[in-house]
Amino acid sequence: MSKGFPENFLWGGAIAANQAEGAWNVDGRGLSVADVAQYKANVDVKDYNKHVAISSELVEAAMKDPDDKKYPKRRGVDFYHHYKEDLALFKEMGFKALRVSIAWSRIFPDGEETEPNEKGLQFYEDLFTEMRRLGMEPIVTLSHYEMPLALSVKYNGWADRRVVDLFVNYSRVCFERYKNLVKYWLTFNEIDSIVRHPFTTAGIIPDKCPEGEKDRTVYQALHHQFVASAKVTKDCHEIIPGSQVGCMLTKLTTYPHTCHPQDVEKTLKRNLDNYFYTDVQVFGEYPPLILNRFKRNGIEIVMEEEDLEILKANPVDYVSFSYYMSLTESADEGLEKAAGNTIMGIKNPYLPSTDWGWQIDPQGLKISLLELYDRYQKPLIIVENGMGAADKVEEDGSIHDDYRISYFREHIKAMKEAVEEGVDLFGYTSWGPIDIISAGTSQMSKRYGFIYVDQDDEGNGTLERKKKDSFFWYKKVIESNAEKLD
Ligand code: BG6
Fold it and tell me: Which of 165, 294, 297, 436 is deepest in the core (most CB within 10 A)?
């Protein structure tokens, strides 16, 4: 007899402040790095490097520009003013948990004030209180691609050690204020993404890096984030007894394109690279192969005396990850490429793709769960999974997103198999349960939601919320603890 998901499994959804809240210039909020991300209509959606490209000049121009058409993350879907209505819809689907993030620049607008912004603190207190009232467990990310822009301009973001203390202080303020409301915390969203988009993740502006030192700067900033994460984990445990602090990985599962040993070796290295980040946060140590690679490539990380001790003494309590797609790797450089989550890999001939070119691979989720659990033996939670698609609203207002239902059905089945094989998985928060702005392309038309939001890429629309077919389907899934998936 299969046992399925545990009774208290945390079913829900996940959003990020910068993609959902809007209200970028309301109640004392400062600018964040997300507010300078531009919507680029004429750029191929698979060309992430162009979408996330940034320079000091672009940042300056954005700071002077009050427009929110060009910078869609400024407007989000106005969750800031709609959150009660949106939470009621999540509740109707039966959500047991909701993952949200706190916009650092609502609490410390420039990142360095001596006193926090009370209006920002109050907003999240109201949000978490409402979630609790509705019986939803808040899972809160402290840094999800939205550091105060002022810190990026002044310090080149996380490249500067001083940002560690500023982040630790901000986190402490959050723990003190929300200690009776929030038990589950995540420090950095997809900490590994710093190598793919250093500005979005860590406020690093390439032209501010010393000549020829971009890679070193990125790894230095990453080290600062590791140390900050460990310090914050310690503080959280002290301030909120019984709290659980997790790390987060973009699980970029990669298969060898063939069984040629060269493909296998390249794949192994790619997967080890992917594990590096969680290895540090779970084992509290840098993997020796990574340290050796830094050495061979002349990447010297400046560490303070106590850093390694801090990392070792404060590992995370659980491992969270996002999973959207898988990739393959080959020694043959000439093979056709496929897009993925801000990354390219070799196309897998066995897998279909979304309209954005991300390869759909439910079994890859099962493989990821087995690998992660075997490696870390820590409780796991999937904090992002879903499919970006262009939805069509019918004349009667209905939205028939059977492709999304099928994506989720197969992924949840795969997840269930992994649980039945013994993986300790305690929750699943699908990405963007309500349509929000895309992180990678700043599009509105790349929709993940069970709930449709009436807004286009240019910001036109009423912001009305509509239930898609998947809304009713996910409700049944949660109600039956995934016993009913059809
Ligand atoms: C994850 C991010 O990498 O992918 C989210 O944590 C993001 O913020 C999600 O939205 C999907 O990516 P995109 O580019 O389709 O929004």
Answer: 436
